[in-house]
Amino acid sequence: MWSFVGKKQHKVWIWLALEQPGRKIIAWATGSRGVKTARKLWKALPEAYQRKAQLFTDSWKAYKKVLPKKRHFEEEHQTNHIERFNNTFRQRCPVLVRKTLSFSKSLKHHNYRIKIFIDHYNQTL
Questions:
Q1: Is 124 domain-assigned?
Q2: Among 9, 24, 68, 120, which residue's Cβ finds the most Cβ atoms within 10 Å?
Q3: CA angle 56-116-5, nearest 5°?
Q4: Cα dist. 96→14, 49, 57, 105 in Å?
């Protein structure tokens, strides 16, 4: 999922890790669509998930370079929960909507707003 920060030319991608049974957001990162942001997401995962979780993703190439091969599965039908969450996220967090007056002017404030929403979402589960 992406949004604009500062100006329309500056797209920021939001990477999320969702726990499948409870649908809790366990980690997130913002940045480009590259390996650097994939590493940020991997480092944001709690250690227990890094050690033994099965990781389902789409076939984006950055995942292949960062996630452990033995536990990484490219199965797009397993990503439907995160895609559904992305829709909810856009509807409830106006900073992510393209045509709005609520866009973030700085990445720092953008990340604060995302963190507040994710914390609130996780608490309501």
A1: no
A2: 24
A3: 80
A4: 10, 27, 22, 12
CB atoms within 10 A of CB 104: 20
Cα 125 to Cα 109: distance, rounded to the nearest angstrom: 25
Residues composing the chain: 125
Distance CA 62, CA 100 (A): 30
Which stretches does DSSP call E strand in the chain?
2-5, 7-18, 25-31, 55-57, 72-74
Residue 88 inside a domain? The answer is: yes
Question: What domain range is 82 assigned to?
Answer: 2-118
Placement of tokens 């940045």 in the chain:
31
Residue 61 lies in a domain: yes
Give residue-wise pLDDT tens across range 99-115.
Answer: 555 667 788 888 998 99
In a domain, 11, yes or no: yes
How many structural domains is the chain composed of?
Answer: 1
Query: Which pLDDT does position 77 carry in this prediction?
Result: 85
Q: How far apart are CA 91 and CA 97, in angstroms?
A: 8
Helix (H) or strand (E) holding 31: strand 25-31
